[in-house]
What does this fold into?
Amino acid sequence: MNAEWWKTTVVYQVYPRSFQDSDGDGIGDLRGMIGRLDYLKELGIGAIWLSPVYKSPNDDNGYDISDYRDIMTEFGTMDDMEELIREAAARGIKIVMDLVVNHTSDEHPWFIESRESKDNDYRDYYIWRDPVNGEAPNSLRSIFSGSAWQYDEPSGQYYLHLFSKKQPDLNWENPNVRQEVWDMMNFWLEKGVGGFRMDVIDLVGKVPDEEITGNGPKLHDYLQEMHRETFGKYDVMTVGETWGATPEIAKLYSDPKRKELSMVFQFEHIGLDQQEGKEKWDWKALPVGELKRVLSKWQTALGDEGWNSLFWNNHDLPRIVSRWGNDKELRVESAKMFAILLHLMKGTPYIYQGEEIGMTNCPVSDIAEVSDIESLNMYRERLEAGYSKEEIIISINAKGRDNARTPMQWDASENAGFSTGRPWLRVNPNYTEINVAADLADPDSVFHCYRRLIELRKLNPIVAWGDYELVEDVPEQVFMYVRRYEGLAWVVAANFGASQSTVEIPRFGDSGEVIIDNYGRSVVDFSHLVLRPYEALAVRLLRE
Ligand code: TEU
It folds into this structure.
């Protein structure tokens, strides 16, 4: 048993609603996914993080669960799920479930009971408080706009919901709640899943009365209890979604000695294009220098007391090539640049569906085209606050979550090969050009760059285990680092600029063997290296 398989693999995130429909209802499903496993095997990934497939009324696309032990009707059945786990395993791929246990759906039987009456056995499964001076207990805000407290007429109390009002927060202080969660996790572990991605896990230790949400005092006790009671006995990976993690906090989760999680998603780099003290909708240009410093800090700060996750994208984030690259004439180059830069770092890389073919954002012109609850609530709130429709739509196009959720673009046929029916969310019109079939056929495609990067990680221990050092004496817009392992040194350079940049580092020697790049170079001379717009390369140094 190799306890660390997740340190040498690459994880692929599937957003099932948008991956592959098999029955023509316009919604992706498990059977569709099974049919695409060979594609994922060809890409070379070792695990799939599956966004929620449980029963859900879909107020937040499955992140509002009404039955943790059943499958969403539109996605299929438990038999399909078991077949998916089996068929994936047959291809060397593990299925990592999304564990959404900060909250349930308000349609979960626990909540239906809980809201029945103040003395119901399940009342204390959720967080109920009396009004204060006839109003909400305090000023806690929902991440999806408005107050985090919802008044419940019949009992005269408020319940807490840090997300939508159809996502009431569970009360983790209650040992029965924790036991229910452990039982449910064991139910899935026994089915052979490869681990869990833990939704907003940093919120479960909240102390609502003190307005503490993230990183509450008992958070790590709970996670150690979880480790003991559930996955500690299995060879699985666990990754926590932790928006507020610093390297010090990340070590608390991922230091193997503490027996908590394998790793966390840290979001420090993700917030760099956000204006100070404002919301994600209020963006600014990416400060490349800060990106270099932040990612490099994370590369070195965890040392042996933790493990990094590496990602640009997920189902909550805009597409990286549109966000920080050029999704027009340099789409292929910039998509590959992000891939090369990230995949040769230390940590476990995550690819979000469609990223491997350079899928782009999908702009809308009217709120009627928007599906995501976060954007819809924000739209209402900002209209009331006096913003114009036009400025709100600009924010949604830059940062809205639907950008990442449009259907997977498989080929140039109708609906991009995603569905024979009408897709639940419109297909990005650029599918005739950007699609899997086209990328598979072109050896220079974004897909083949990702496939090669995954292979490089498998074949070269330096990628998983090498040390990391940022190269400082280069122009601000060039992100350059060295990996070193057992006498070998690899240099990775990426020009974030839309213009060329010159790098002069004579100590790296006058030539090096190109391992991978995005402009088709054969030799690299570091004493005078002109990097073209979004050019990225990795080179094995002949001497240092
Ligand atoms: O996301 C947590 C979260 O905080 C996000 O809503 C985030 O703030 C926002 O989307 C950033 O743009 C997780 C899931 O990934 C997300 O899809 C869910 O909506 C949310 O939890 C509630 O379960």
In short: The radius of gyration is 23 Å. Residues 60, 63, 100, 143, 163, 199-200, 241, 243, 280, 315-316, 374, 401 surround 1-O-alpha-D-glucopyranosyl-D-fructose (CB under 6 Å). The first strand starts at residue 11 and ends at 14. The longest helix spans residues 175-190.
